[in-house]
Amino acid sequence: MSENTLRTRALTIACVPASHPYVENTRDPGETDVVHLPDPPPVGGASGRWWPPAMLTAGWISQHAAEFDVLHVHFGMESFETAELSEALDALERAGRPLVFTLHDLINPQLDDQSRHDEQIALVVGRADEIITLTAGAAAHVSATWGRSATVIAHPHIVPVDRDEAVVSGPVAAESLSRAAVVGVHLRDLRPNIAGVETVGALTVALEILAGRGIDVEARVDLNARVRDEAARDEVRRIAEASPRIILRERDRLDDSELEMTVSESDVALLPYRHGTHSGWVELCFDLGVPVVGADIGFLGEQHPDDFLAVDLDDPVSLAAALEVAVAAPHTAAGSQARLELVHSRRIERRAARRRIAREHRAVYERAVAARPTSERRLQ
Q: Is 0.90 topped by the overall pTM?
């Protein structure tokens, strides 16, 4: 199939999953040349969610291969045994459909035991027609580890870019320039990659160091009402209660708008991650104009290098130094005019990036389809 033929029709992509903010934001709503199939009902899962992803089963692929041009895997492999995943890829091969894989996580933040994840990454990387990843560092890792080339496409926006900016930025607050600076820490549900106890412990000491230098900083630590590690939650409570500079807020899981507002209220965000590869939280903070301090893990620092300060979460002195730099930045203060202007400029930047990211994905899909003559069957 020629490139010109590909560009005369829309490409239909079976995204795993389709209803995920990352995936949704890789498309430009003004373009119709790439169509995403909706998520089918999950395999044995609850209605209203995409997991476990039916599209990653041999049965679904065999029955629906005529409906899509490319299978694009993002998330959800951990829902299946490696043998089941291999069977699905065999069905995709028999159907003559190409596989595109976006490698988000070399280490799965949801898991303690990474052995199956490692197996599945190696399997899918080895069989993918095209590989995408989010940073040059991750692409270099793919090349060094598996001998494959990966196309680098930047992470899309998280905060909707076509919404009223006042919803995101909030009103300009004069008092923001005279109050204590706020460090926001979201421990969420204490999933395996969250170093909750270590982060809050180091933060307690760092805030005292800053106070000794005459720098007024407080921390607001958010924690879901339901957590995966109750012992860690109890220790976080104990540490927070002993510190006059830490406010611990335990509440139900925040929806998107509540989360955006909470992050926007921070002068700086502290990521409590013990391991990771890329981070949607880094992107959320970038959209909201909030600088990020976090451990030098994976390739988080490559996502937005000018807005990321790497620290050792086990070293309160290092943490205090990074927080001092972050809160002194001229655009940092939540509610300030400088923050408002920064958010505005980034929304313009993100709109342009959305169009570029959509084009880059289309180019990857075209290469994948063109490399498989059997893909033409869908046109007949």
A: yes
Return the amino acid letter for 290. Answer: V
| DSSP 8-class letter at 47 | T
Write down the architecture of domain 173-335 according to CATH: 3-Layer(aba) Sandwich (3.40)
pLDDT given for residue 255 in this prediction? 94
How many other β-carbons are positioned within 10 Å of the β-carbon of residue 107? 17
Average pLDDT, rounded, for the chain: 92
Q: In what order do the strands lie in the sheet with 34-36?
A: 34-36, 11-16, 70-73, 99-103, 130-133, 151-152
The average pLDDT across 17-33 equals: 93
Tokens of 126: 């080895």
Backbone angles phi, psi at 70, to 5 degrees: -140, 140
pLDDT tens string 172-191? 454 555 589 999 999 999 99
Peptide bond into 98 cis (omega under 30): no
Token couple for 370: 């063109």
175, 334 Cβ separation under 8 angstroms:
no
What is the distance between the alpha carbons of residues 12 and 337, in angstroms, rounded to a whole number?
43
Angle between helix axes 115-127 and 82-95 (nearest 10 degrees) is: 10
SS3 311: strand
3-state secondary structure 242-260: CCCCEEEEEECCCCHHHHH
Q: Looking at the domain 3-157+352-379, which fold is it?
A: Rossmann fold (3.40.50)
Task: Collect all residues with Cβ–Cβ distance below 8 Å to 48 and sequence separation of at least 6.
Answer: none
Three-state SS across 251-320?
ECCCCHHHHHHHHHCCCEEECCECCCCCCHHHHHHHHCCCCEEEECCCCHHHHCHHHEEEECCCCHHHHH
User: At which residue do the structure tokens 């000794």 appear?
Assistant: 212
The Cα 193–Cα 273 span in angstroms is: 6
User: In this structure, what are the phi and psi dihedrals at residue 220, rounded to the nearest 5 degrees?
Assistant: -115, 115
Rounded CA separation 140/142 (Å): 5
Domain boundaries, the chain: 3-157+352-379, 173-335
Sign for the pseudo-dihedral over CA of 102, 107, 109, 115: positive
pLDDT at 6: 58
Span 202-220, pLDDT tens digits: 999 999 999 999 999 999 9
Q: Reduced to 3 states, what is the DSSP secondary structure of residue 74?
A: coil
